[in-house]
Amino acid sequence: MTDFRTLKDFIVLARVRSFSQASIHCNVTTSGLSRRITALEEWLGASLFDRARHQLELTDAGAEFHVAAVEIVELLEKTRNSVIRTQEKFRRQISIVAPHIMSRAFFPAWLPRASKQLEATRFSIDFANLPECFKHLTNRSVDFVIAFEDNHNGINEHLNKIFSPGELECLKIGREWLVPVSAPNLLGEPLNSIGSPRGEISYLHYRQDCSLGWALEKSLKVNPSLPVLRKIHDSSLADGLRSMAIAGLGVAWLPLEIVRNDLERKDLVRAGNTEFDIALEINIYRRKEKLGANAEILWDNLSSMTNDSRLTVASLDTSYTSLS
Question: What kind and span of H or E run contains 147?
Fold first, then answer.
């Protein structure tokens, strides 16, 4: 089988019709070029050039082969250039996966700032449940995972049961709070108040596949001030619980960022004071191995802006506890 370089040498020789001139263009000695063309002819089983003439001429077989060689070289060059552009685009791209709630609670405020810092960068952001996010990260499908971490370690404890992402690095890049909210009554007070309860409180809860639910359930178990909560409706999405809360169906713990406007408009009111709020850290995770150039720049920028040092995540069983 001949190689790509020999095909290009053959095309040059067919154009200049001189071994000495072609060898200059091909950056090879005349004898070296001659050996390559001879090997090509042996592979093809036919002479490509009529060497009896003063100036080289293509034989009939050479002319036929020349058409195919030009097409092959052009196709390979075009494909190579396309691959190079794609790889360059990939190096400039930063891929992130996060739980669905981050599309409302984090990225609208953070992404414009990050894009401004890295103007030539294309961000590719997908959403999945939290275990799937870490699978994407450890499978090298994405550069980063951005996710919540609760101060009672409910999210980590749940992940420890079903998944272990191996060694990761982590930075704390923000904070959020789950706040208890309820629809107001005619006096503007919460229909479902956990601060001054009258009997059981209707409670809108997250489904078991939602990581916010893991944080909430752990926090509720360790808070002695809570009244009796009666689970009624559930949803895997915070927006679903928000709609139920606005409809007056119960109290829901929702990220402050997604209910901020509702609280200002009085469509929702706090169902209890801040002692019932649940603090959340916003963390960004990566593999230890080197990432693309722009992904590394983003990491360095975030690292320089946070007061927390880089945290080595040896495993979920040990590391997540240290992030609390």
Answer: strand 144-150
